[in-house]
Amino acid sequence: MEFNATVAPAKKIGAEAPHIPGDKSISHRAVIFAAMAEGESHVTNLAPGEDVASSMRCVAALGAMVEHDNTSVRITGGAWRSPQGVLDCGNSGTTMRLLMGALAGREVSATLDGDDSLRRRPMRRVAEPLRELGAEIETSEGTAPVHVGANHPLHGGHIQLRVASAQLASSLTLAATGATGRTTISGAGSARDHTTLMLPHFGVEVRREGDDIVIDGPQHFRAADFHVPGDPSAAAFWLAAAAIVPNSTITVHHINLNPTRLGFVAALERMGADITTTVDSEEPEPMGRIELRARPLKAIAIEAADVPAILDELPLLGIVAAYAAGTTTVRGARELRVKESDRIAVLVRGLRELGGSVTEVDDGFDVTGGAPLHGATVESGGDHRLAMAFAIAALGASSPVTIEDAGCVAISHPSFFTDLEKLCQA
Ligand code: S3P
Fold first, then answer.
1. SS3 sequence, 29-69?
2. Residues within 6 Å of ligand 1 by CB
3. Can you give the pTM of this predicted structure?
4. Which of 52, 337, 356, 424 maximizes the CB count within 10 A of its CB?
5. Mean pLDDT across 356-382
6. Of 306, 312, 366, 419, which one is the catalytic site residue?
């Protein structure tokens, strides 16, 4: 749904954050693993947005029985069949890339496609290493539509990833579960490790050996019940709101505290916010609460090594940096240019409209903060994370901000604007 949203500056932020949606990365995996498993799995606190709905639609088209009700889903998986039409992955890179790997080792053929944004994103980085394991995969000049052929038995091998991407490592890991022999995947670095943490829960043995992921295939998936923790990438917006509106305190509950996802929390702490993190449970991933008290913020430097754990929050960091004294620098983040939008370009354009002082570089940006931003109309680039980041920018601005094409928040957080309103009225 296309609409523009106008967000007014906030005087105060509520102390209790609204319910945080289930983690999107983990929800995709739970849906796909459940569909690969024989028997019935039950997933609760599933991420509510269109992206995870794309994963559910695709696995249903592949033959899984999917009974979805609000934020819980029962999936009966096992035997996959070649779908009737194309698998529509919508806006979701995770759906497309993980399914490419999951399909590669199965005796079905399918064509995966998506919206204009997904059709611009690189798929050769997934197709090429999958071919090294014996998969038959054709991209359309490196992008979607992507065709995966049937009846190509996969074999193990040593795969060196060219990009330290969690989607890529996960895709190869799923393919390796259908391959005969040992597959070793190197180069995932410190990218989010949900796949290796969740697979044992679905009966699949996988090991981390240093930086390598090792799987002895073939392996069978077992149905399981799974509760999805809150999404730290969604909580980040409320934490940022409280960090930039003076005198605020906020607590977010039931959040996934996997360290590969907490780079933004660490960055806010380095910038001077007062943060307490409490782990309430440990399995299969740490989960708990984060409490933040606003303090005057100062600039920090984000280097390449920091990027994986803060990847999806870097545009939001750019907004927070506009409210911090000094110049915040982000480098080693060229991947942002091939996300749902060119996130460096969209951020820089929007921040400039709002009166921010920002410099664009090939692999990042510099933002000099201090003076409040002013109201203006900004473009989201059709990118959910940018639309939400500009909404947070408005909270500390001197006048309201209008975000064009704001309906894209439904990709990950459909209730974002109503939740934001509640947060600002409290
Ligand atoms: C994701 C991995 C990251 C992230 C994306 C979700 C995942 O992408 O940006 O939003 O669920 O594995 P890359 O693997 O391309 O770095």
1. HHHHHHHHCEEEEEEECCCCCHHHHHHHHHHHHCCCEEEEE
2. 25, 94, 165-168, 170, 191-192, 311-312, 335
3. 0.98
4. 52
5. 97
6. 312
